[in-house]
Specification:
Blueprint (H helix, E strand, L loop, with lengths): L1 H9 L5 E3 L18 E3 L3 H15 L16 H10 L3
Parallel strand pairs: 1-2
Helix pairs in contact: 2-3
Length: 86
């Protein structure tokens, strides 16, 4: 996917990424330096907010199950770590 994005950038299209990165994500020193901007979510805080709302909806009783399709994903790990606070 890097080559088509590089071609678009070379053609003058601004490239922005949201919650994912191109290459290794090191745009200052890595092999991919063209994204104009990288926008990321705070997945730990997102996990806290979601689980707080769920805990409130359940009157802080019972158990919940979190299904991860990609358990090794840093985004999923941060959200799951936040969920354990409740």
């Amino acid at each position: 996917m890097i080559a088509p994005l590089q071609a678009a950038n070379t053609a003058g299209l601004p490239i922005l990424t949201v919650d994912t990165f191109i290459g290794d994500g090191d745009y200052a020193n890595g092999p991919v330096t063209f994204p104009l901007s990288f926008i990321a979510s705070d997945n730990y805080l997102g996990g806290q907010i979601a689980c707080r709302a769920l805990a409130d909806a359940l009157n802080k009783t019972g158990k919940i199950y979190i299904q991860n399709v990609s358990p090794a994903s840093a985004r999923r790990m941060h959200a799951k770590k936040a969920a354990r606070m409740f």
